[in-house]
Design brief:
alpha/beta; single chain; globular
Length: about 210
């Protein structure tokens, strides 16, 4: 990220894009040039009197993830541009207001509208910053955390990027009927990240 003037989030999303591109090409699909994800964007609490440390206020905003960009610097630049557009727009707060309105509607209407919007995307992609130092649970050290983002409607896939104690894990959740070989996605993500590292920094991952 520092080498390209982008964020850790830009790097991880670009690695996901590269892995999906590889996955589609292995199956003979060279035509898809983007997929739409719903990504959570934090917004300020709207309820009066709620302490800042309580609650989790976010809106799901559409990210058009570019696929098929083989140049790593070009892909990072495009991902950074698209994420900046979302961050600098009012889309998140507007979507949050729509979500609150839907939640207050009668159940059948709320479910129908939720599925209508959910089906516009392939799934939910979330990047969660976890604790920066090691934690313990019931006296045992937590070695790592792996998460899966929730989905709704007919979304076939979710991706959860979770950082913990200086490491990042990526959890892929898929509809087995549509994507039966989810472990291949994991392998391709690993290959793509190593390829990105080598192209940007000029040396293999793990070398000095």
């Amino acid at each position: 990220g520092r080498a390209t003037g982008t964020t850790v989030n830009d790097v991880m999303l670009s690695a996901v894009a590269g892995a999906l591109t590889r996955y589609l090409r292995e199956r003979g699909d060279n035509e898809v040039d983007e997929v739409i994800w719903m990504i959570p964007v934090s917004v300020q609490a709207v309820e009066p009197g709620v302490p800042k440390e309580l609650g989790n206020h976010f809106a799901l905003v559409a990210l058009r993830m570019p696929l098929g960009i083989d140049s790593v610097p070009a892909r990072l630049k495009e991902m950074h541009h698209r994420m900046d557009r979302i961050k600098n727009s009012d889309e998140a707060i507007l979507t949050f207001g729509i979500q609150r309105t839907i939640a207050q509607a009668p159940q059948k209407i709320a479910v129908g509208l939720t599925n209508f919007f959910a089906d516009k995307a392939v799934g939910v992609l979330t990047n969660v910053p976890g604790p920066r130092t090691a934690m313990s649970l019931a006296g045992s050290r937590v070695d790592g955390v792996l998460g899966w983002a929730p989905c709704s409607g007919d979304q076939p896939m979710t991706v959860c990027i979770f950082s913990y104690n200086g490491r990042v894990s990526v959890g892929f959740g898929t509809d087995k009927t549509l994507i039966p070989d989810v472990m291949r996605l994991s392998e391709l993500f690993d290959e793509e990240f190593k390829s990105m590292y080598a192209e940007v920094l000029g040396r293999p991952l793990g070398s000095q």
